[in-house]
């Protein structure tokens, strides 16, 4: 069964977004809740810094993968084999605990007459990474956005990541890695293409 994916495109209507002051006040509440004093010298500028860093860490909500993937190239001199960009580093945040997910993504596609600029693939990973995520959803979102925009013969995505919600809290198992994959088109229907993809990312 295929995953149901919501891409969460950027919001053109920002009327419901809290103000900078409201975000900073919320941080002050959390500081008090944690047991500290927001008025002490070391924390005076912390609310503003946190709000600023969150704006950067979650900047993916203000971007749409479709915009990044919009330009493609048709002059490929007959090339129709796998295009793979591997070991793309990313930082995301778990939507359940809002703690970091640190990992790398491997993304491949089989061209169908058009190719993408290689940096566009890394940008797509960045856009979906800079949102509150589950790794499973992020894997499917990357594949879906490339599949729908480029219409290739197939897309393959693998993500390897360490979840700080497992390393810093709860079970506290450092160093464990979660792997997720999504395949479309020929990568899904032809096992040999999956094997090629897996072999190439392990070289």
UniProtKB/TrEMBL annotation:
Pfam families the record matches: GTP_cyclohydroI (PF01227)
Highest taxon above the source species: Bacteria
Sequence segments annotated as region (Disordered): 1-21
Residues given in the record as Zn(2+) binding sites: 94, 97, 165
Every GTP cyclohydrolase I domain range: 24-202
Keyword Acyltransferase: no
Pathway(s) this gene product operates in, as recorded in its UniProt entry: Cofactor biosynthesis; 7,8-dihydroneopterin triphosphate biosynthesis; 7,8-dihydroneopterin triphosphate from GTP: step 1/1
Biased composition (Basic and acidic residues): 10-21
Entry's Gene Ontology BP terms: one-carbon metabolic process; tetrahydrobiopterin biosynthetic process; tetrahydrofolate biosynthetic process
Record flagged with keyword tRNA processing: no
Alphabetical UniProt keywords: GTP-binding, Hydrolase, Metal-binding, Nucleotide-binding, One-carbon metabolism, Zinc
A GO molecular-function descriptor: zinc ion binding
EC number(s) stated in the UniProt entry for this protein: 3.5.4.16
SUPFAM superfamilies: Tetrahydrobiopterin biosynthesis enzymes-like
One of the record's GO cellular component terms: cytoplasm
Protein family (similarity comment): Belongs to the GTP cyclohydrolase I family.
Assembly mode: Homopolymer. Toroid-shaped homodecamer, composed of two pentamers of five dimers.
Protein name: GTP cyclohydrolase 1
Lineage of source species: Bacteria, Pseudomonadati, Pseudomonadota, Alphaproteobacteria, Hyphomicrobiales
């Amino acid at each position: 069964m295929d995953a149901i994916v919501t891409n969460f495109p950027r919001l053109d209507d920002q009327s419901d977004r809290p103000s900078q002051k409201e975000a900073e006040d919320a941080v002050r509440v959390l500081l008090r809740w944690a047991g500290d004093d927001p008025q002490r010298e070391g924390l005076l500028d912390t609310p503003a810094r946190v709000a600023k860093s969150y704006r950067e860490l979650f900047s993916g909500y203000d971007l749409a993968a479709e915009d990044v993937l919009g330009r493609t190239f048709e002059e490929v001199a007959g090339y129709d084999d796998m295009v793979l960009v591997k070991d793309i580093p990313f930082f995301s945040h778990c939507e359940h605990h809002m703690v970091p997910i640190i990992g790398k993504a491997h993304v491949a596609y089989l061209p169908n007459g058009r190719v993408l600029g290689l940096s566009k693939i890394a940008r797509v990973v960045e856009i979906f990474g800079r949102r509150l995520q589950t790794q499973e959803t992020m894997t499917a979102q990357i594949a879906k956005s490339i599949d729908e925009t480029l219409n290739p013969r197939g897309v393959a995505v693998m993500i390897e990541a360490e979840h700080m919600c497992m390393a810093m809290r709860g079970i506290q198992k450092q160093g464990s890695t979660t792997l997720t994959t999504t395949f479309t088109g020929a990568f899904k229907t032809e096992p040999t293409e999956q094997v090629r993809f897996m072999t190439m990312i392990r070289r």
